[in-house]
Design goal:
Low-confidence stretches: 10-17, 67-73
Radius of gyration: 21 Å
Order of helices and strands: HHHHHHHEEHHHH
Largest sheet: 2 strands, antiparallel
Mean pLDDT: 83
Strand content: under 5%
Strand order of the largest sheet: 1-2
């Protein structure tokens, strides 16, 4: 009943001042989401990925910063052993196609469906226009999770990279050196770009969550859609469809490691995510606003 009582207190406090109600609801959603063991487990798994990548590259290099590194993957993978800061970029490139969106899919897919399954949804809709505010709070919470999850990967990679490999001046993909301080700023910009790349998929997951009362079904469907769309994006015969799929420009963050920065595909990615957020966010609102939650 703690969730119900909290919703009632938020409603009572916000009757006079609507923004307080809205921010109180968002604060409640954030607290509940990030206190769940499932959320903490997801973040722990994401934090562990850079550790595994760093150890694997250290072993492959034979303990020497000049050895190993390979040539596979994006250009900056081969530079990890020379500069540990590149582990941030490598880890984000490794987690973005699968691990990060799957974690977001779990949170977004369970946002509405999980509440309906547990029976708490009806108690959260205790105020006038509660559905719209609740949906916005759920989506905002999912976006915060996107950013937190991305920063967790980046922070873990930075710590592991600094521990296992030397750090210093950064050589960009364009072959132009930049200082370590600017390299850190580029790493932060990359993390934000990766988080922004998940805006559209978060809206897709939220829409799926409004279609069912089963949290497990919503999470499975969201992850299934992710896998399906990524497969479609790799089929050569469907190249014309690729630019319209939400993961198509996900790896455009690598252009932030060029000097000068290439903005073209970065802007295309943000535009694509905005379109998906608008379309599926509207669809989620239309479905949720008409949904019968009394059963």
């Amino acid at each position: 009943m703690s969730r119900v009582e909290e919703a009632s207190r938020v409603e009572d406090a916000g009757r006079a001042v609507s923004p307080l109600w809205t921010f109180g609801l968002l604060r409640s959603e954030l607290r509940v989401t990030f206190r769940r063991w499932r959320t903490l487990a997801l973040l722990a798994v994401l934090a562990g990925v850079p550790v595994l990548i760093g150890i694997a590259m250290k072993v492959e290099s034979g303990g020497s910063p000049e050895g190993g590194g390979g040539g596979g993957g994006p250009a900056f993978f081969s530079q990890v052993t020379q500069n540990g800061l590149f582990l941030v970029f490598a880890a984000l490139a490794a987690t973005l196609p699968v691990f990060l969106p799957m974690a977001v899919g779990v949170v977004a897919g369970d946002a509405i469906a999980g509440e309906a399954h547990s029976g708490t949804l009806r108690y959260l809709l205790v105020a006038p226009a509660g559905r719209t505010r609740l949906l916005l709070a759920k989506y905002a919470t999912t976006l915060v999770f996107c950013l937190v999850a991305t920063l967790v990967v980046a922070a873990s990679a930075l710590a592991v990279g600094a521990l296992l490999f030397p750090v210093g001046e950064v050589m960009t993909i364009s072959g132009v050196p930049i200082g370590f301080g600017e390299g850190l700023l580029r790493a932060l910009a990359v993390a934000v770009a990766v988080a922004a790349s998940l805006i559209g998929f978060a809206a897709v997951g939220l829409f799926v969550s409004t279609l069912t009362s089963s949290g497990i079904a919503a999470m499975a469907t969201t992850v299934g859609l992710l896998i399906t769309v990524q497969i479609l994006d790799t089929i050569p015969q469907l190249d014309a469809l690729g630019p319209y799929l939400f993961p198509h420009y996900w790896l455009s963050f690598a252009d932030l490691l060029r000097e000068p920065v290439y903005w073209d595909e970065l802007w295309k990615n943000l535009g694509m995510q905005g379109v998906y957020a608008a379309v599926f966010g509207s669809a989620a609102w239309a479905r949720f606003s008409a949904r019968d939650i009394t059963a």
